Amino acid sequence: MLKIILIINFFLISLITMSSDFYKFNFDTIEGKKLQFNTFKNKTVLIVNTASMCGFTKQYDGLQALHENYRDKGLIVLGVPSNSFMQEYGSEEKVKDFCETKFNITFPMTKIVDVIGSKKHPLYIWLSEKYGVKPKWNFHKVLIDNNGNFVDSFSSLTKPTSPKLINIIEEKIEG
After folding, report:
1. CA 168 from centre of chain
2. Structural domains of the chain, count
3. Which domain range does residue 137 map to?
4. For the whole model, what pTM was predicted?
5. N or C: which terminal CB in the chain sees fewer CB atoms within 10 Å?
6. Which of 46, 47, 54, 143 is catalytic?
């Protein structure tokens, strides 16, 4: 009986450790401040690698709508500007200005980072190694639940306002 209890405890500790990996990450914000993911505990997070000069850039409207409609219910939309696909401005100032003036973006944005390749951000290394998530293009979306667990990833073709994505977000923020 003691053996079973020890095994169950080990299993539960392993699950807790695995689910908390997400909270170890951080980014610098587009304004140059530290953004610690441990501040996202008990929040559902939608992470989107963005680019200002992409055909999918109009998805900013949908991302902003998600932010406005669900932020008070526990959703964090996080924009991660990236030039990995050669469609982003070269400076954070230009990205910030573009997002604010063209799309009135108010959700948090990070500094420009790589999401693929040998210099990709540690979060994207973790997503790739642990879950096989590798963005194939800009506006790839990753959903993390309120316990820091990977839920799913969505291609650039999935609009932020798609019923499929919204249903999963609603399920996660209510659960």
Report:
1. 15
2. 1
3. 21-174
4. 0.88
5. N
6. 54
